[in-house]
Amino acid sequence: MKNVILLFILLGTIAKGQTFYPANPSGYYSLDSKTTVKDGDTYGYFGNIKVKQVDSNRIFVDFYVCKGAPSYNSGSFQDTLLYKNGIAVHTTTEDATCIITFNFNTSGGVTLEEKTKDLNNGCGFGHAVVANGF
């Protein structure tokens, strides 16, 4: 019994301060954004991400985001990305300043952050489409 308690204390000490990431981020993710529907048009950002783990270090990502009415400008890509410590990063040759970071977390979600020089036309997406959110 004493050894079991010692083991739990040791495991707790080792795990303290460490962040655990999902070993396999495969799945379907939807953008958690406030949208409203009026006269059949959707206002506000919506989109989805489909992820399939290729091997322990790579994931395939099928990404789509839409700005909504009235323009319905959108952005999308399919890419195989390196995956390490819950992070994957997408870049594109269309915009050398484009970096989209996918941060997968243990809550079953993914947080996106887009960095680009021009948010109005960055990453090869439609006008003013930005890939940020949960």
Radius of gyration: 19 Å
Q: Unreliable stretches, pLDDT < 50, 5 or more residues?
A: 1-17
For the largest beta-sheet, the strand count, sense and barrel status come to: 8 strands, antiparallel
Inertia-based shape: globular
What percentage of the residues does DSSP assign to strands (E)?
35-45%
- Mean residue pLDDT: 85
N-C termini distance: 44 Å
Number of strands: 8
How do the helices and strands follow one another from N- to C-terminus? HEEEEEEEE
Q: State the helix count.
A: 1
Helix content: 10-25%
Keywords:
134 residues, mainly beta, 8-stranded antiparallel sheet, disordered N terminus
Summarize the structure.
The protein is built from one helix and eight strands. It is 10% helix and 45% strand. The longest helix is centred in the first third of the chain and has 14 residues, at 2-15.
Show the helix and strand layout.
Blueprint: H1 2-15, E1 27-30, E2 36-38, E3 41-55, E4 58-68, E5 74-84, E6 87-90, E7 99-104, E8 110-115
Antiparallel strand pairs: 1-3, 2-3, 3-4, 4-5, 5-6, 6-7, 7-8
Question: What does this molecule look like?
Answer:
- Strands 1, 2, 3, 4, 5, 6, 7 and 8 form an eight-stranded antiparallel β-sheet that branches.
- This protein is globular.
- The protein has one domain (20-124).
- Helices cover 10% and strands 45% of the residues.
- It has one helix and eight strands, in the order αββββββββ.
- With 134 residues, it is mainly β.
